[in-house]
Design a protein that fits this description.
By secondary structure, the protein is α/β, with parallel strands linked by helices. The chain has a four-stranded parallel sheet with strand order 2-1-3-4, sandwiched between helices. It has a four-stranded parallel sheet with strand order 6-5-7-8, sandwiched between helices. Strand 1, helix 1 and strand 2 form a beta-alpha-beta unit. Helix 3 packs across helix 4 and helix 3 crosses helix 5. It is globular. The relative contact order is 0.15. The mean pLDDT is 92.
Length: 281
Amino acid sequence: MRYALFMGCTPYGATPELKTSLEAAAKALEIELIELKEASCCGATHLQDFDGFLSLVINARNLAYAEKLGLDLITICNTCQLVLSQAAARLAADRDLLERVNHKLGEVGLRYNASIKVRHLLYALRDDYGFDNLPIKKPLIGKKIAPFYGCHNIRPSKLASGDDPFRPRALDDLIIALGAEPIDYPLKNDCCGFHTQMQASETTYRLSGGVLAQACDRGADWIVTPCPLCHLSFDAQQANAERAINRPLNIPTLHLTQLIGLALGLDDRALGLRRNIVSIK
């Protein structure tokens, strides 16, 4: 399996453990990832509100680099997946808009032909690799794990990867394939609040605290998410979430690639687990 990789900003800044765990897991799975070193930030839904056309040009540029490789583009971030998928869908549906965008791309010697498919790693593993084909060496037997899907991976459904936005299954099925028990809880496909943190941080902490508290109350040992932004809300900001909802939590949060890596038998250093704020114990 071979993909173009849009790493996104967060693994290069706040969560480098996601970059190391992705690289280690991909190597163990013999998946070749060609990182788009020329890519820029997707805008993370904020640039879109400020200048929609500029956002389209920037993301068409990112898509054009993947198109030159002739590969599907994958991400490990829900928000990157949403923004890139929205740009790809708009440009594929509107040839006049595509030509306006290509006029700007021409200034840097690029052209986008609207042929790229954007996917999240979770769904590429499900659909191309197959969860049942993962070479498990250390099954996570006895672990109760709460899946947290986040908003942008499953909504809007027309841009998502085939999961039911109200009853998603991919993370649950992955947890089962890794030998653990998925914990069901109502807030698993809710919002972590990350995108309100700059404007209303207390709202963010109450939202993330509510999710973590419900996972704890259902008996979860860990929570897993496919998104680095949800990961930040639940791990780096867990102390603030505890304060906001006035109760202790102390529940470790793993990114998708860290959880898979554990079941593949990869060590703590390769998975960057020592950088997680709440230790997996």
